[in-house]
Amino acid sequence: MLNKTKGRKLYIIILLIGNLIGIILSLVESDSLIQSISYFTWQSNVFVLLFFSYLLFKNKELSIKEQSVKAAVTIAILLTFIVYHTLLDPFFNPSEYTPPFWRNFLVHTYTPLLVLLDYFLFDKKGKLQYRMVPHWLTMPFAYFIYANIYAILGGTFVFEDSVSRYPYFFMNPDKIGWGFVIIFVLVISLFISTLSILFVFLDKKIVEEKKYHDREVS
């Protein structure tokens, strides 16, 4: 029978296999390497690959700083999941574009959900703090800066019937204007902050419930 440590390592291996396949498919099924690696989806999946590969070979309990980094990676990959399933996928026209199933499933659904489930199954609760929340916004904001530098330097994203300097319509001032881009950025930032605060709240609530349950049992 597997103990918890070995069980987590097996779980991480399963997570990483799907995660790595999704990352590779994103590259081989694309006509442009630089375009593929310039999507937040690809970058957030790489963050997962790097951190969970580190986690696979770490035998000690995560420090508070490491737990915060893991939370930042979790928030970033959950953002990939949520944005794709709410702002992108519902608006695809099947007659114009149908994303490859396995690539799409692995990077937008499989990896985010397994990363989140890893927290519930294996993480020691009670380490997350509200003061960590601003740090978890770093990845999305860094990507916003990256995407704009990419556009300024002449980078493009080629879609089925169009070419754009930006990867997502809500980041595209050429299409919706800077005013709406700023509104979208503020709304998404507020959403990420709210999600992060709820994550910390849940982390603390689980600890409180466990303490209450232990008192009741004793």
Textual characterization of the structure:
The structure is a single chain. The chain is mainly α and 218 residues long. The protein has one domain. The protein is 72% helix and 2% strand. It is built from 8 helices and 2 strands, in the order αααααααββα. It has helices at 4-28, 33-36, 40-56, 64-88, 101-122, 133-136, 138-152, 173-217; strands at residues 157-158, 163-164. It has a two-stranded antiparallel sheet. Strand 1 and strand 2 form a beta hairpin. The longest helix has 45 residues, at 173-217. It starts with a helix and ends with a helix. The mean pLDDT is 89.
Rg value: 19 Å
What portion of residues belong to β-strands?
under 5%
Number of beta-strand segments: 2
Please summarize the sheet with the most strands. Answer: 2 strands, antiparallel
Number of domains: 1
Separation, N- and C-terminal Cα atoms: 29 Å
* SS content category: mainly alpha
Strand order of the largest sheet: 1-2
What number is the mean pLDDT? Answer: 89
Order of secondary-structure elements: HHHHHHHEEH
Total DSSP helices: 8
**What is the 3D shape?**
globular
Low-confidence stretches: none
Classify the helix fraction into a percent range: over 70%
Characteristic terms for this protein:
218 residues; 8 helices
Concise account of the structure shown:
The protein is mainly alpha-helical. It contains eight helices and two strands; from the N terminus they run αααααααββα. It is globular, with a radius of gyration of 19 Å.
